[in-house]
Design brief:
The longest helix has 31 residues. Helix 2 packs antiparallel against helix 3. This protein has a single domain, classed as Helix Hairpins. 76% of the residues lie in helices and 0% in strands.
């Protein structure tokens, strides 16, 4: 089989693990970590596809770096919300985030 197939299979498995973590967990910190796993799976797929495909060299790496920057911003905002909620509620469970609506 093609080596790209194995990299994409690994990326798919990582993405599924992250999606399960987002859907199954109630702790906000673990949900954010699962989102990071999903973003890393997408980065792996982008870089693997770019390396095995003839075309613009470094395009997959450039997109991966862009996603890493977006992930850092997402973690910063997410953890700020978690800290603010923890100061008010003394918990990091997702079911306490109902007051953020509206």
């Amino acid at each position: 089989m093609n080596a790209l197939y194995w990299w994409l299979l690994l990326s798919f498995l990582l993405f599924c693990i992250g999606a399960f973590g987002v859907l199954a967990r109630r702790n906000v910190i673990l949900v954010v970590m699962s989102l990071e796993i999903m973003l890393n799976a997408v980065n792996l797929a982008l870089v693997a596809t770019a390396n095995f495909r003839a075309g613009a060299k470094g395009a997959g790496t450039l997109f991966a770096l862009f996603i890493i920057v977006l992930a850092a911003a997402e973690v910063t905002v997410g953890l700020a919300i978690v800290i603010a909620n923890y100061r008010n509620r003394r918990t990091v469970q997702t079911d306490t985030f109902d007051e953020l609506k509206g």
